[in-house]
Design a protein that fits this description.
Blueprint (H helix, E strand, L loop, with lengths): L1 H10 L3 E4 L7 E4 L3 E2 L2 E2 L25 E5 L1 H4 L21 H10 L16 H9 L7 H10 L4 H9 L1 E5 L16 E2 L2 E2 H5 L3 H9 L5 H23 L16 H15 L5 E5 L7 H16 L3 E5 L3 H6 L3 E5 L8 E6 L10 H6 L17 E7 L7 E6 L3 E5 L6 H17 L11 E4 L6 E5 L12 H4 L3 H9 L2 H6 L23 E4 L7 E5 L10 H4 L8 H6 L2 H7 L4 H12 L16 H15 L8 E6 L7 H16 L3 E5 L3 H5 L3 E6 L8 E6 L1 H4 L6 H9 L1
Helix pairs in contact: 8-9, 9-10, 20-21, 21-22, 22-23
Length: 701
């Protein structure tokens, strides 16, 4: 019997019909199909976008395709169809596509006078698909594509093309038929589009049969543990398919921390470099709990940290100092928090309340502002925001509340495009109003490295090196030998060491192994210049000695040389007196790079100019001790005194208490955030009862 069934399947190419005497004919198939559809046999690779087998066929696993961008087609959502919401149909030539909709809209009850943002999902879809009365946008763009042999149609299409979410996989990057496999009516595509907090709820309430429970028992334990750790480190607002490239440094570090917790290793040593970056004080407590869990598992946890909450929770504090650079490098204190009282250090002074970041007691008044209407990018809930000019504005809120989206995706690119200096994609919003015409320049002072190569360093970035090279050119020996300023540059041929091209270090290519970098150049011994250039000295120091000086040392060395001092002093004022003038940009931390940029703008001194620069800082306190935050605030206020405006995205309460205006987003992160919970001065904010930022600000104000 089984042999006959096997033969029938083979000869019938997967179909087998069984006739039983006195009973009905039964049909069987060994193909994985139903209702005329053939399905793939699921496997692990079937659910992976990193594998060609599981990747979406349309976008090839990237999640986005080059297509017609709805936001370019309908840029102003506050307009109705009658008022010209559909941009390509506004011209006299293309109006013929719109006329049937305006004329016959009443026949199928379409509201042509209602703003696009108030239309239902079905009504919006109808604009694209069309019906028997009018041809929709999809048909319109197909017609345009059929005419691409004419340049005017190619130009028109290019205006409305952009990177859009793949229609087949909804941005999940998985093949379409992977979503046919469902557990409790939810597919893997549905799950990866959920925030982690919602995904946890799904797996917690998952109802399975006894057999399924046995199969899934170990898997569910691992899934729940890993999701739980991600939520514990304050990342419950992220969706599971969020691209790593869109995460902040702090978020990425906390994901790695959650991975370590999920692996449940014991006897390991974990070294964390400022894991509290990007965390609201509300979430820092949870982070401390996670670090203690790692410790209790039997691991050693070492944290490099400036956050007060983390320091006070530590079992052992090791304080290095007493100051930075040449004035540091000593062990000032080691022991428990309660023994810190006898220590004379900046850390002890701030932790014990002997010293604090002072506010000058004055809130600047403002009359000019920039207004953003209908911001709805990512999790922003169609909010209206008024950003004052000429003051220090702090954008606050818990992690994931929408601060970076508002500033980086809407305020910065929208104003930058008007000024013609920014080409970044602008997020979805309605309108930009107010006094943005006052702004002559917009600068996003981020933590990316200064310059574009390892040759970049602080002294060249703040434009002090030009004056230093001129000073050496003016020395008698340099004049005698006919040296020009270019001879004292390590970027061009002439005086630099040609073996290492002025790097001071060489790269050795290893044929079958990784290249070896940073070997001191044998020709110049790391000095970067030829010996004859080093013969030229000023006050007993050659150009290489000057590049090896710290900022603080150079201020004394160049005393009286105002052209040099005026450029270098801002570096000292922002708390970077310890860095080397010629220190490679590669060796600067993100916070240091950000402060070098700040020093550059301070050095420009725009007090008497007609420029009004809008500065945007993204967490400028990253990597800063309390002692340095006070210096940073003096520098930021100096920018405002020069007639500029400053916006800071910040969690640090010391900076927030000194702000002239606060815009708080929330109330929570992810889909529970994106609303303006407060806009006003800090004194009014602390009166709020159920606001996370207000609770922590009360202690500082």
């Amino acid at each position: 019997m089984s042999d006959s069934v096997q033969t029938a399947y083979f000869e019938g190419i997967g179909d087998c019909h069984v006739h039983v005497d006195g009973a009905e004919k039964r049909s069987f198939s060994d193909r994985f199909e139903a209702d005329g559809m053939k399905f793939e046999e699921p496997s692990v690779n079937f659910f992976s976008f990193n594998n060609p087998y599981g990747a979406c066929r349309t976008c090839e696993g990237f999640g986005k395709v080059l297509g017609i961008d709805p936001d370019l087609v309908i840029p102003d959502k506050s307009l109705s169809v009658y008022e010209g919401a559909i941009a390509p149909w506004r011209s006299e030539t293309m109006k013929k596509w719109l006329t049937p909709l305006l004329k016959d809209g009443i026949r199928f009850d379409f509201p042509i006078h209602r703003p696009y943002e108030e239309l239902t999902a079905e009504e919006r879809e109808l604009l694209w698909t069309g019906n028997e009365y009018f041809e929709g946008l999809n048909r319109f763009f197909r017609y345009m594509e059929s005419k691409t042999h004419k340049i005017q149609y190619r130009v028109l299409l290019s205006r409305y093309r952009g990177r859009t979410v793949c229609p087949d996989c909804r941005g999940t990057r998985l093949r379409k038929d992977a979503s046919y496999v469902k557990i409790n009516e939810s597919s893997i595509s549905d799950l990866v589009l959920m925030p982690i907090s919602r995904a946890m709820e799904f797996f917690d309430t998952l109802e399975l049969s006894e057999y399924q429970q046995k199969v899934a028992e170990r898997l569910l334990r691992e899934i729940n543990n890993r999701l739980g750790y991600l939520d514990e480190v304050g990342l419950g607002y992220l969706t599971l398919n969020r691209m790593t490239s869109t995460l902040s440094g702090g978020e990425f570090q906390r994901i790695k921390l959650a991975t370590s917790l999920g692996s449940a290793l014991v006897g390991s040593m974990y070294i964390l470099d400022e894991p509290s970056i990007g965390l609201h004080p509300r979430d820092t407590k949870r982070l401390v709990g996670v670090l203690k869990t790692l410790r209790d598992l039997g691991n050693t946890v070492i944290v490099v940290e400036h956050e007060e909450e983390v320091m006070t929770a530590a079992d052992q504090i090791i304080d290095i100092g007493p100051d930075a650079g040449v004035h540091g490098g000593e062990l000032v204190f080691q022991g428990q928090l309660e023994d810190l009282n006898g220590s004379q250090s900046h850390t002890a002074d701030f932790l014990l309340g002997r010293e604090q970041v002072k506010w000058n007691g004055i809130r600047r008044k403002w009359k000019d502002s920039i207004s953003i209407t209908g911001a709805r990018e990512n999790n922003l809930r169609n909010i209206d925001v008024q950003v004052p000019l000429g003051v220090l504005t702090a954008i606050t809120g818990v992690s994931g509340s929408g601060k970076s989206t508002l500033v980086k995706k809407i305020i910065y690119p929208s104003i930058g495009k008007i000024l013609g200096t920014v080409s970044d994609t602008t997020g979805k919003f309605g309108r930009l109003d107010g006094d943005y015409g006052r702004v002559t320049q917009i600068e996003f002072v981020d933590q990316n490295p200064i310059g574009k190569s390892s040759r970049s360093n602080p002294v060249t970035y703040v434009k002090a090196y030009d004056a230093i090279r001129q000073l050496f050119t003016d020395q008698p020996l340099a004049k005698q030998r006919g040296y020009k300023p270019s001879h004292f540059s390590f970027n061009v041929d002439g005086g630099r060491c040609e073996t290492c091209q002025g790097e001071g270090e060489v790269k050795i290519e290893m044929q079958f192994m990784a290249d070896i970098y940073y070997l001191t150049c044998e020709s110049c011994k790391g000095r970067r210049f030829k010996q004859e250039i080093l013969d030229v000295e000023y006050k007993g120091k050659n150009i290489a000695d000057v590049l090896d000086m710290t900022v603080e040392e150079s201020l004394g060395f160049f005393e009286g040389r105002n052209a040099i001092i005026s450029k270098i002093r801002p570096l000292f004022e922002v708390g970077l007196g310890y860095i080397g003038l010629g220190q490679s940009s590669n060796s600067l931390s993100g916070g240091e790079a950000q402060r070098v940029k700040l020093a550059f703008y301070l050095g420009k001194n725009t007090r008497n100019s007609k420029e009004h620069i809008l500065f945007i800082f993204d967490e400028p306190t990253t990597g800063l001790h309390f002692h340095d935050i006070a210096k940073l605030l003096i520098s930021i206020n100096a920018l405002i005194e020069q007639g500029n405006s400053v916006i800071v995205i910040e969690h640090n309460m010391e900076v927030i208490k000194c702000a002239d205006w606060i815009i708080d987003l929330g109330p929570e992160g992810g889909e529970n955030g994106g609303q303006v919970t407060f806009a006003g001065v800090p004194e009014d904010m602390v009166k709020l009862e159920n606001n996370h930022t207000a609770q922590f600000l009360k202690d500082k104000l």
